């Protein structure tokens, strides 16, 4: 339940961040070309929004099966070994998160101690960096959930995103009157890791 | 030792089924910890800065979002109508029109499999009805769809410039002539085949019909002119052009074409409605539609799709930057370059080896991932051998195109198999004659740098 709420919250948040990024740059361009002015903080703000946007999305992507990877080799193994390989891969992913968690904690405490601010925006730099440890914690949560599913046998891999399969929703039935049957070709729901 | 650890961990992780981003990140961080004196803190901040200190990188989410707005079946159908009206009356015209439609859709959408799915699902059946064989139709479309990553604006080119710090604007200039050339080669080949096989032509629909369909298609095609015009003219950076393109794509999709959002199925002019009343209706409907699209489910889904693809790609790029950092601090490309130069391998020989390597990698991995791993290694070597960075980028992109046509990870093959309902082997055989054209094109691009370099040199002089 809490996990589902988290998933939805992440989704809303990063969609908003993306829209905000586009609009910031767009407004900046309009201001420059039409009114010959600009917003001093816009570039830095957009860049930090981008950082937050991606880091919020990575853990969501694990649950959604949106990450990109190569599973041709693993898929050739028998089921049991597929699950073992996935658990090993998950353990390595966890190790990565732990290393970056420790690293971001080190850097954040350093920044907090020095107390510097961002270049164009008057907020302490360490505020802007808090997303890094948060993202790593969220990732570990998602990896743990996926690991539990693999142990129980509900999943066997990361369920990578397949761009080819994704394009199939553009397939249209060849109706002569040109009616749009855009979703006819969608063959699998991407909501859960396969 | 360092090289061995880095690559063993990377490829071990990838083949174990780890997401590529984490495999890149883990192998790099571990190598840094084992073999250098950098702290974990500096690694963490490098990852964050990779995401938040590269303004050019922002062009990637923006272009992806603008293309999701315009990668709809509706846009594909409008482009096909326009292309068929324009060149359908030539012998083999429907096939040539399909190639043209692929080129246009490719430029708007920037994605190869999306191009094959959107255009192919309409024109393959259409060609079969006109008396083409299905394998001819499927082969043409599968190949023409790969132009998606060569004709600018192209995401793969942005990824290359992220990996190598080559100017994205220059890459966009360099891709245009090769893209048009490849489209031209395909069309000439179709014309010759049509003459031999006596394939049908369609009646010319008349200038009025052509002008009308051209005008309708222009709504989507303006995006290309906005983006390329502002970048070629040097008035905007790719990031700014992409942001403007996204807002424009949203406007066209919601208000212009009304393929999605609150105005869907509300025509600009109902039947014989008077122009005045249609205009009045638009006056309040357009702003209402624009505002309403912020809460519209379909529009939200497009934003979510665009966000998903960009986040995953940007996270791979961030980790690939850690990887590139390890490569440079350990001087790995430098070592490889010296070894290769020590062998006395000339530039043309290196290019052959590079093409073979990339073609092999293209069989297993996704274009962006290959570029992010290979470009930081191959780039310094190529520079030492005197190969132009922009030319190198175009060669790599063409290699990635071919990768989309080779099993087992040939995305376009997969999509064509999906829309025709035929087995993979049939699709591979259908695509093969046209694939050989693409291979010839690769040779041409590799050994005639002027094709890629003419436009960027001319525009910047």
UniProtKB/TrEMBL annotation, chain A:
The keyword Cytoplasm does not apply. Residues 183-194 have a biased composition (Basic and acidic residues). Residues 21-150 form the Tripartite ATP-independent periplasmic transporters DctQ component domain. It is a multi-pass membrane protein. InterPro entries: DctQ, TRAP_DctQ. The chain crosses the membrane at residues 12-35, 47-63, 84-105, 125-145. It comes from the Bacteria. Keywords: Cell inner membrane, Cell membrane, Membrane, Transmembrane, Transmembrane helix, Transport. It is found in: Cell inner membrane. Its main location: membrane. Residues 169-194 are annotated as: Disordered. Part of the tripartite ATP-independent periplasmic (TRAP) transport system. The complex comprises the extracytoplasmic solute receptor protein and the two transmembrane proteins. Belongs to the TRAP transporter small permease family. This is TRAP transporter small permease protein. The lineage of its organism: Bacteria, Pseudomonadati, Pseudomonadota, Gammaproteobacteria, Oceanospirillales.
UniProtKB/TrEMBL annotation, chain B:
It comes from the Bacteria. Residues 7-451 form the TRAP C4-dicarboxylate transport system permease DctM subunit domain. InterPro entries: DctM, TRAP_DctM. Pfam families: DctM (PF06808). It is found in: Cell inner membrane. Keywords: Cell inner membrane, Cell membrane, Membrane, Transmembrane, Transmembrane helix, Transport. Its main location: membrane. Part of the tripartite ATP-independent periplasmic (TRAP) transport system. This is TRAP transporter large permease subunit. The lineage of its organism: Bacteria, Pseudomonadati, Pseudomonadota, Gammaproteobacteria, Oceanospirillales.
